[in-house]
Amino acid sequence: MRIAITGGIGSGKSYVCQRLRERGIGVYDCDAGAKKLMASSEEIRSALVKLIGEDAYDGWTLNKAVVAKFLLESESNKLAINAIVHPAVIRDFYDTGLQWMESAILYEAHLEHTVDKVVCVAAPEDVRIERVAKRDSISKERAKQWIDAQIPQTEVAQRADAVIVNDGVEDIEVQIDKVLTLFGIEF
């Protein structure tokens, strides 16, 4: 069984994944995997250069500013980059043999079909705003804009098979135990 951990910015996905790792459960980080693959995969490099142009890379270093500019120019550009990177990330996840993956954009990237179960990590909006503002040294207004740009947390929670509330009050360990039991995973 393959399981994805997802949730909006500031929900505490990484914290929950760290708690899983402390229990000996490996979790593939899709963001880190994408960065690694864009820096090491000849297939991805060639495809991005063909799509964006030679200035997409400086040698083997991804030119983030050029790629970001291209990505933000249109929805079709974003979809074209995603069509190159996301399948490679999922193949890499499968190749690791890990059961769990952390993906912030699981539903946005339409990757939910690549796993058997989805766990949403959720937190109240005010808590998320505070976490993001502090973590990224930005204003609370900017943090709220980032949150508002994502799929609403209520929709992500409704689509998921389980929800872990990471509000600083609910016991994360108890909730993880319940998810593992729900999915029939011995711990």
Note down, in words, how this protein is organized.
The chain has 187 residues and is α/β, with parallel strands linked by helices. It has helices spanning 13-22, 30-40, 42-52, 64-73, 75-96, 125-136, 140-148, 153-159, 172-182; strands spanning 3-6, 27-29, 57-58, 61-62, 100-102, 117-122, 162-165. Strand 3 and strand 4 (61-62) form a beta hairpin. Helix 2 (30-40) packs across helix 5 (75-96) and helix 4 crosses helix 5. The radius of gyration is 17 Å and the shape is globular.
List keywords for this structure.
single chain; alpha/beta; 5-stranded parallel β-sheet; two-stranded antiparallel sheet; 9 helices; 7 strands
Please describe the topology of this protein:
Blueprint: E1 3-6, H1 13-22, E2 27-29, H2 30-40, H3 42-52, E3 57-58, E4 61-62, H4 64-73, H5 75-96, E5 100-102, E6 117-122, H6 125-136, H7 140-148, H8 153-159, E7 162-165, H9 172-182
Parallel strand pairs: 1-5, 1-6, 2-5, 6-7
Antiparallel strand pairs: 3-4
What is the structure about, briefly put?
The protein is of the alpha/beta class and 187 residues long. Helices cover 55% and strands 13% of the residues. The chain is globular, with a radius of gyration of 17 Å.
